[in-house]
Amino acid sequence: METNVCDVAIIGGGGAGLTAALYTSRANLSTILFEKLMPGGQIASTDLVENYPGFPEGVLGPDIAQKMETQAKRYGTQFLYEEVKEIRRKDGNFEIVTGEGGHVARTVILAMGASFRRLGVPNEKEFTGKGVSYCATCDGAFFKGKEIFVVGGGDSALQEGIFLTRFASKVTVVHRRDQLRASPILQDRAKANAKIHFLWDTVVDRIEGGKRVESVLLKNVKRQQTSSLKTDGIFIFIGHDPASACVKGFVETDEKGYVVTGGNCATSVPGVFAAGEVRRGAVWQLVAACGEGCEAALAAQDHLEKHK
Questions:
Q1: What residues are annotated to the active site?
Q2: What average pLDDT does this structure show over 253-267?
């Protein structure tokens, strides 16, 4: 078990975590960032980011994630690619427990983000990676010239659906309502795209196939009628679930598992702060996550100064 005490432990390497690391490291606070996969979070798997300030032509998600990681490292952030299992109090500080051991920090910033939500229908898990996907930029190229379904009606569903038309010959958007929730500009783009078609008032009941996805069983929620349609793949964009399992029972969370915060990103535990999509009330935008990462970092710095 590690015995050295760092000033700040940041859990999660998405936009919020990377920004927090930049600010705490530049403030000469010893900072460890824990990331179980790769820095960047969801932004690392986003094709083109068009609404991040300073990039009028847009910026590739993996590019901005890499630059943010490099910037944090430049000022001294230590990156540990370990999954945090638990956070607990230890001698007035906090112990970060991973599968590799333990690390002690004086303050903690929770920036674990959220994970893609699953439909929960038969064969979804079995066909994940075999025609079922939650990441268009990861898997879109595998469906060149294919006909695919996109499930969802929000910004993510339309953004990824539009991106998938670069490869697929036909993209059918399946939405349980008769109106989309996405922003008007994305709705206009999707409806103007000749490759995109819509199935309204419809949900997926079952995913079917042999070695790979071959068809989906769909149900019209108004007529209660079912139909089976052939497809080469199904991309699911119906929301997210907070990656807050490691802090359940440690800080206050709401009924959905999002971390509850007050002013300055403070959680119910003094010295522990939360930023980004793991936090209740997050607005699901990179620029907002970065802003919250900055706010949490400054709050952690203030807490440390008051508790020297």
A1: 135, 138-139
A2: 95
